[in-house]
Amino acid sequence: MKVAVIGANGQLGHDVVRAFSEQGDEVRGLTHADIELSSLDSVAACLRAAPAEIVVNTAAMHNVDSCEQQPGKAHEVNAIGSRNLASVTRDLGSVLIHVSTDYVFDGSKGEPYVESDAARPLNVYGRTKLEGEELVRQTNPKHLILRTAALYGTHPCRAKGGQNFVDLMLRLARERGRVRVVDNEFTSPTATADVARQIAALSRSDRYGLYHATAEGSCSWFEFAREIFRVAEVPVTLEAAGPNEFPAKVPRPAYSVLENRGLKSNHLNLFRPWQDGLHAYLSEKQLAVSSQQA
Q1: Residue 85 pLDDT more than 90?
Q2: So what's the pLDDT on residue 244?
Q3: What's the mean pLDDT when you consider all of the chain?
Q4: What is the mean pLDDT of residues 83-111?
Q5: Would you say residue 175 has pLDDT above 50?
Q6: What are phi and psi of 58, to 5 degrees?
Q7: Which of 133, 138, 73, 127 is nearest to 104 (CA)?
Q8: Coil, helix or strand for 147?
Q9: Domain 2-293, CATH
Q10: Where are the chain's structural domains?
Q11: Residue 238 to residues 128, 170, 177, 180, 228: CA-CA distances in angstroms?
């Protein structure tokens, strides 16, 4: 099967390319140099030059602070860009797999969100991603929208300075020996390798629609950090930060746990507990370090 992955040089896109390649598909990785999502002409020219049966969009403007500072640009990329992709893939007869976010919710529910829950985003990022979802649904019937959360992977995330939460915690532990992390915000930390594997498998299905796609289980960021240090066997003093110790410039949901109800009801869920994903990630990183030292 021919597959085009947009955002192929990103944290998630890199693993999506790998997952489809391992599945035996012919994969074309696209970056910002190849395609400008906010331009319909660019999207059309790029995708029509080498039509693919599956188009996966992992690209977005997802730095929350930058979105708040540049709402017009966020709208162009996250909303209009999604519509452009949906329009061109519809005309080509392609399936569009579109990655979205837990930030479409406000976090007030207090228990895992399912796909049918009302979305009430708190910030520009969440609003523009929700608008993108709606435009995809309206434009291309052959769509798969996956909401995921708290991603981390072996490939650098450029929007976050090239460092994910796991790597940040390990660096701070080495440099300071003492780390403080909030214990009142909850999510489902999800390895990009697991999301990529789910996307590749879901591409074989015609069960189009909206899916929540995160690791099983949930934890606070403090509990996540504690498990990171335990598995990595890093000596550190970990302390719970006060609720207002690290005030955010932009409002974020304090509870953004998603339940993969759609995947499970269709017998498509491949996600493992978040702890298992973390263990696999740290093992892969250790193998990479060992091979470099050999």
Answers
A1: yes
A2: 74
A3: 92
A4: 96
A5: yes
A6: -105, 0
A7: 127
A8: strand
A9: 3.40.50.720
A10: 2-293
A11: 36, 12, 9, 6, 11
